[in-house]
Design a protein that fits this description.
Blueprint: E1 15-20, H1 31-45, E2 49-54, E3 57-58, E4 61-62, H2 69-78, E5 82-86, H3 95-106, E6 113-117, H4 124-131, E7 141-145, H5 150-157, H6 164-179, E8 182-185, H7 188-196, E9 205-207, E10 225-226, E11 230-234, H8 243-253, E12 261-265, E13 270-271, E14 274-275, H9 276-284, E15 292-294, H10 299-307, E16 311-315, H11 324-332, E17 336-339, H12 343-346, H13 353-356, E18 357-358, H14 362-375, E19 377-378, H15 386-412, E20 426-431, H16 438-451, E21 456-461, E22 482-486, H17 490-496, E23 503-508, H18 515-527, E24 532-541, E25 551-552, E26 557-560, H19 569-572, E27 583-586, H20 591-595, E28 599-600, E29 605-606, H21 609-622, E30 627-636, H22 649-660, H23 668-700, H24 702-706, H25 713-726, H26 730-742, H27 755-764, E31 766-767, H28 768-773, E32 778-780, E33 788-791, E34 796-799, E35 809-816, E36 822-830, E37 838-845, E38 852-858, E39 863-869, E40 878-886, E41 898-907
Parallel strand pairs: 1-2, 1-6, 2-5, 5-25, 6-7, 7-8, 8-9, 11-12, 11-16, 12-15, 16-17, 17-18, 20-21, 20-23, 21-22, 24-30
Antiparallel strand pairs: 3-4, 10-19, 13-14, 23-27, 24-26, 24-27, 28-29, 31-41, 32-35, 33-34, 34-41, 35-40, 36-39, 36-41, 37-38, 37-40
Helix pairs in contact: 3-4, 4-6, 8-14, 21-22, 22-23, 23-27, 25-26
């Protein structure tokens, strides 16, 4: 169906889409997948047309646990449901990329309702497009179902938020809920948890238990007394689901079980860098019985196993939303016990709480299991009738569809004498970078004026010749809608626009702005109360007809240069993630432009425009005005020269923290925020400095510099420091002097190096100690406080070996890729205090390749340099492992301080 097309006449009940990365069928058993399958079947049985848009796609391939995805499509078709997947060429965890592909697909088909999971924020760009007035979504309502947001999972698992990507995922999940038309939660518990994080819930929020796939097929069996001869852990095998709490209870009961069996039924996951299956096997090694591990059963097989024999399902999750495993046990009459106090308790009839629930502690679970094994258990009953719940949910959906269609019909009626909205006066404020000559400024400004004949253009230039009143020679007069002004007049000119009732678009002069972007922004400003809008930069992708009919593509695909999250309060202070260098705002908000100059008073030059726009947005937010990102239109990528400014973002963000977040200067919170900002800014500042250094050296004569011998490296950095200082950049000069004191990179020892060589090679070097310090690694068998120590400044990793019974101490660096020939280099050292020799190992693993490894044995007090050239087959993508272990089983690990000095991948 085309975008904006009405549903077919035969589609009388309504057309509904379920967007999800988990649905039982292609996905393995799991609560979200079970709930989505139940919802899809119930909607179809109620007469709705149902499409499922599957998002668990990586590198163009949809995931299917059993059989091919084509077979799953056929199986759903037999049920009357259309199973499709998005066209996604990126990685599985590219959440924003998948969210954009979902938006593009939904714009091409008209749906009355679209259901989303809150998990992974897939709804984000679609919700933003609807909030900002996307006409293709005007007759569609978005429903977000609360299953398990990442912030809640991290809260329960006590997992730290280590990276900016983690923070971004938390934000898009939160905002997806806040922007939704309706939020449906299977428990009141999870809504309280989300609100405790400071989230706002939309007015249309309701609690509706999940619908199981077989709800309409059978009645709930009555309660019965059941004897128990097998205990079954039922659920995903992870900490959050109470796996280790269950093991603690078994530790206490292991000599009381007699001939009773213990089974673990559920999927393994990864925790602390390894499979929970491995951890469970080690944990169970000392039990006087052998547990059974059933880790590859699907939902139907798992339920069949629990119903066969006198088996007790145990669900010891400390907190859970609305576990389908509990609901399944209730509906099937399976004996079970579960933790009290969270969403699972809401599913159980009050009078059965004493039979089925226990406090989520090892003592309480042990006591409850002991009592059940002795006296048996009474099976529980649900707190609601599942059939009635399914019927009422379908009635609610039908009511929503009716409202959507009535609203669409009312909007389609002729407006009569009602006048069309008045076009807004368009004002373009274009900032000319200093790299452009006066002639280039005039030419670029004239071209922009021709592209926007109905707009009034103000171009601000630093060069007095470009900004002369005449605008150039008399033979080439400026277009009537264009003025070129000196940058010093920016505030005065901006203030004049405050009362014209129009809109203002601000960006760099050399960034083309399509009329379609301004049209979409104008439409949004007229339809909504949003004060300012930003966009992403990207390029259009040719839409190819997919080979498989089940791949859903939109009529227009875009590949962003960099994904933005827009108005994200948590990221506003941590990253410039709000814009790509363009802002469109209402003219009445022009006062913020007059207050904040685009000229840096310290460097006496134009600020980076993206950072300047971000500063404007921070100021708008402080004034109580909102802005949003337009996710459905893009700026074309432009070949703009790098600004190479001082990286201003930490200063801007700290001002925001002090002025707008109320963080007192010098307070612990402010100091921690400053540390975080400086850490995030380090890489960007370094790249900017290297780029500027290359430009400065070219100005003073790079040819002469290239004839010099730049070894040792300190000599090169000292020379560049002098150039930077003479060019008015003392900050860069000091940084280079500091670098000269620690520069020992062996890749330059082969001979002279150009400034561009140092810039390029430094940028391509991957320091592993930095990755460890930033938490960008995984680990195995690092269970002691002394297992791992890192010194960022000295670029040093101490990977203390384990005893022979604990396994190798290993660091894992996953998903590495390199642009060209690369070497792994390090110095390894074993402290003299070690009781025996230690083996150091470096290993590479890549798909379809045999692992490659190098090993070195050091005696106490020994130190040596190691250098390994990476095979070409591993450059495109590999995992790297650093390992230490004692060479002799009998040796104590005491004093065995094994260190990797400056471990890094460097270009050859």
């Amino acid at each position: 169906m085309k975008a904006g097309q009405s549903p077919q006449s035969g589609d009388s009940k309504g057309r509904i889409c379920i967007v999800t990365g988990e649905i039982a069928g292609p996905d393995f058993n799991g609560g979200i997948g079970t709930a989505n399958r139940g919802l899809a079947l119930a909607l179809r049985a109620a007469g709705f047309t149902v499409d499922v848009l599957y998002t668990r796609v990586e590198h163009g391939q949809p995931f299917s646990f059993r059989g091919s995805f084509e077979e799953q499509v056929a199986a759903f078709r037999a049920l009357g449901i259309s199973l499709m997947c998005i066209s996604h060429a990126g990685q599985w965890h590219d959440w924003l990329g998948k969210s954009l592909r979902v938006l593009e697909a939904l714009q091409s088909t008209s749906y009355d309702l679209v259901f989303f999971d809150d998990t992974h924020g897939t709804a984000y760009y679609t919700a933003l497009a609807r909030k900002t007035g996307n006409p293709s979504l005007a007759n569609t309502r978005l429903v977000v179902v609360t299953h398990s947001a990442t912030q809640w999972i991290c809260d329960l698992n006590q997992s730290p938020i280590n990276t900016l990507a983690d923070a971004r995922l938390l934000e898009i999940e939160r905002r997806s809920i806040e922007l939704a038309d309706y939020v449906v939660s299977p428990s009141a518990y999870i809504l309280r948890k989300y609100q405790s994080y400071g989230w706002s819930l939309p007015p249309n929020t309701l609690v509706r238990p999940n619908i199981l796939p077989f709800t309409g097929e059978k009645a709930v069996p009555p309660s019965r007394q059941a004897a128990i001869d097998e205990i079954v852990f039922f659920g995903r095998m992870e900490r959050r689901k109470g796996l280790w709490l269950f093991c603690e209870a078994l530790d206490r009961l292991k000599y009381e079980l007699g001939d009773r069996k213990v089974t673990f039924l559920g999927k393994f996951t990864h925790e602390d860098g390894e499979s929970t299956g491995y951890t469970l096997l080690r944990r169970s090694a000392e039990w006087p019985f052998s547990p059974t591990l059933l880790y590859n059963y699907d939902r139907d097989q798992a339920l069949a196993y629990l119903k066969a024999g006198n088996r007790l399902a145990v669900m010891p999750s400390r907190e859970d939303n609305s576990p389908c495993v509990i609901l399944e046990c209730l509906v099937e009459g399976i004996p079970f016990i579960a933790s009290a106090g969270s969403g699972g308790q809401e599913l159980i009839r009050d009078k059965d709480h004493r039979h089925c629930l226990f406090e989520p502690t090892a003592d309480a679970l042990t006591a409850r299991l002991r009592a059940v094994l002795k006296d048996g258990i009474v099976t529980g009953q649900p707190s609601f009738d599942p059939k009635v719940n399914a019927r009422e949910t379908m009635e609610w959906v039908a009511q929503l569809v009716g409202e959507v269609r009535r609203d669409a019909a009312a909007a389609a009626k002729p407006a009569g004498r009602k006048a069309a909205p008045r076009r807004l006066q368009r004002n373009l404020l274009l900032l000319a970078p200093r790299e452009l000559s006066p002639e280039q400024v005039i030419d670029s400004a004239s071209e922009a004026a021709a592209r926007h004949p109905e707009a009034s253009l103000l171009v601000f230039a630093e060069d007095s010749a470009a900004a002369a009143p005449a605008g150039g020679s008399s033979s080439t007069p400026l277009p009537a809608n264009l003025r070129i002004c000196p940058l010093t007049a920016y505030g005065e000119e901006a203030a004049k626009l405050q009362a014209d009732g129009g809109m203002i678009a601000l960006c760099r002069l050399d960034q083309p702005v399509p009329e379609a972007v301004l049209d979409r922004a104008e439409e949004s400003l007229q339809r909504t109360r949003i004060d300012a809008l930003t966009v992403m930069r990207g390029q259009a992708i040719e839409v190819l007809r997919p080979e498989q009919a089940y791949v859903c593509v939109g009529s227009l695909l875009w590949q962003p240069e960099d994904y933005r999250t827009g108005n994200s309060s948590a990221l506003m202070s941590l990253a410039q993630d709000s814009n790509s260098g363009l802002v469109v705002l209402r003219s009445e908000r022009a006062g913020v432009l007059a207050r904040l100059s685009p000229r840096d008073p310290q460097l006496c030059r134009l600020k980076d425009v993206g950072l300047y726009v971000h500063e404007l947005l921070l100021e708008l937010a402080a004034d109580g005005h909102g802005f949003e990102l337009l996710p459905d239109c893009f700026l074309p990528e432009a070949a703009m020269p790098a600004s190479c400014e001082t990286y201003e973002f930490p200063r801007i963000a700290m001002n925001h923290l002090h002025r707008h977040r109320g963080m007192a200067v010098g307070s612990e919170v402010a100091l921690l925020s400053r540390l975080a900002l400086e850490k995030l800014a380090t890489d960007a500042a370094r790249q900017n400095a290297l780029g500027l250094l290359d430009r400065l050296t070219s100005r003073v004569g790079e040819d002469s510099l290239q004839q010099q011998n730049f070894w040792p490296v300190s000599r090169a950095f000292t020379t560049y420091a002098k150039i930077a200082h003479a060019s008015g950049r003392p900050d860069l000069a000091l940084a280079l002097v500091a670098s000269s004191l620690t520069a020992e990179d062996p890749f330059l020892r082969s001979g002279p190096a150009k400034p561009s060589d140092i810039a390029q090679r430094s940028a391509q070097t991957l320091n592993l100690a930095t990755l460890v310090a930033d938490g960008r690694h995984a680990s195995m068998n690092l269970d002691h406080p002394w297992s791992l120590r890192t010194e960022r400044e000295r670029q040093e990793i101490e990977l203390h070996p384990n005893g022979s019974h604990e396994g190798d101490a290993t660091l894992i660096f996953a998903g590495l890729s390199f642009e060209g020939p690369t070497t792994f280099a390090s110095e390894i050292e074993l402290a003299a205090s070690a009781k025996g020799p230690v083996k150091f190992a470096f290993e590479l693993q890549a798909p379809s390749e045999e692992p490659r490894s190098e090993e070195w044995v050091l005696q106490p007090g020994e130190r040596k340099s190691v250098d390994v050239a990476l095979p070409a087959a591993f450059l495109a993508g590999c995992d790297a492992f650093l390992t230490t272990r004692m060479m002799r089983r009998r040796d104590s690990t005491e004093g065995a301080h094994a260190k990797w000095h400056r471990p890094a991948f460097r270009p050859r």
